[in-house]
Amino acid sequence: MLNPIMGFASIISAAGALASGAVQASAQRQQSAAYREAADNEWKLAARAAETITNTALENQRRSERNAHMQLAEARADAAAGNLLQEGSVIRRETDLATRLEDEISNRTNAALQEANDTRLQGLYDRRNLLLQAGNARSNSRVSLLSGAVGALGALAPGASPLAD
To answer: Which residues contact 110 (CB under 8 A, 6 or more apart)?
Structure first.
């Protein structure tokens, strides 16, 4: 026969186990929500940074193209001022200059666009990692709740209390 005080102790122990599991589960659910929010923020920041890099790259490309046209015009003016005839060497020099300027502009623009792409990819990676952590926290919350319930059932089981006869 169980002593009424021992039965009360079992109920208190069960309630404690259940409350402990519920508190831990709640904290882990909050952590999961915080991870999901951080994932969304991480992606937004990466997307904004990539957009800024892209816009800057395109503006720099336009500016560089204007400068290249001015350099070509200056080279033509220098050739004309020197009374050089339109022979192959002058045309070849202008073509080389135009090609070199175009390559430099393309290389700078491509490097900046690659940086924007890398920023987006890093943002996606970070977002995915945070979402995985959110999923782990959510799973841990379920485990904590279940663990608390099992602990409560164990405390209520006959013979579970060391005070039982």
So the answer is: none
d(C-alpha 61, C-alpha 67), whole Å: 10
Tally of CA atoms within 13 A in the half-sphere of 55 that contains its CB = 6
- Provide the 10 A C-beta neighbour count for residue 86: 10
Residue 133 per-residue DSSP state:
H
> Distance between CA atoms of 2 and 24, rounded to whole angstroms?
32
pLDDT tens-place string over residues 4-35: 555 666 777 777 777 777 778 888 888 888 98
Q: What is the full DSSP assignment across 91-148? A: HHHHHHHHHHHHHHHHHHHHHHHHHHHHHHHHHHHHHHHHHHHHHHHHHHHHHHHHHH
CA–CA dist 102, 109 (Å, integer): 11
The residue to which tokens 């602990």 are assigned: 151
pTM summary value: 0.63
